[in-house]
């Protein structure tokens, strides 16, 4: 399998480009790629470029070939609104959601979120999650990178979300996933934290016109629920 790398900047049409240090390190030292081996580069603007690795000492370069306009994006645009979860659960959610074709990820601070982030810590964690999304695109073949948005308080996000198509996963308190026509535009799916949504938060969702839905009689963990929802939606209206 040919290795794929995200190139952090616009790729020119043909010629040779120097690989950034971290990209070159990963290709040469981690993956042990050799001079002349094929690779694929993408810059996030759509499409990908066939290339050949050129090694000069400890530096890496890429001789660019043809740009291929492959689009592996789902026709269904789902934004995963994920309440902050502790440990490495958020990394897992971001990685797998990108593999499943999510359009964007919006982290929100819920009342029962164990993880609490603000200021510089929040910025650093968001940057980390964005890099997780980049790596997931490299692995899964996506050529456009979903955005991991800045962390927002739930109430603030709900206020800005009025008028959008928003579903909240509410175990035991919602209808099954609708099976009618595909929602027009983006669909936002809200997933609660480890302890679930509070009654006050669900009431705020009701007031904002959010639709309560459920995946069935079993209660799923926060790191499972969003991924299960994405799989169902991709099978119903996406490209599964």
Q: How do the strands and helices of this protein lay out in sequence?
A:
Layout: E1 3-6, E2 15-18, H1 21-30, E3 38-42, E4 48-56, E5 59-68, E6 78-83, H2 89-99, E7 104-109, H3 119-140, E8 147-148, E9 152-153, H4 154-160, E10 165-169, E11 175-176, E12 187-191, H5 199-207, E13 211-214, H6 222-237
Parallel strand pairs: 1-3, 6-7, 6-12, 7-8, 7-9, 10-12, 10-13, 11-13
Antiparallel strand pairs: 2-5, 3-4, 4-5
Protein model, in words:
It is a single chain. This protein has helices spanning 21-30, 89-99, 119-140, 154-160, 199-207, 222-237, and strands at 3-6, 15-18, 38-42, 48-56, 59-68, 78-83, 104-109, 147-148, 152-153, 165-169, 175-176, 187-191, 211-214. By secondary structure, it is α/β, with parallel strands linked by helices. Strands 6, 7, 8, 9, 10, 11, 12 and 13 form an 8-stranded parallel beta sheet that branches. The model has no long low-confidence stretch (mean pLDDT 94).
Quick tags:
8-stranded parallel β-sheet, 27% strand, 6 helices, alpha/beta, 240 residues, elongated, 13 strands
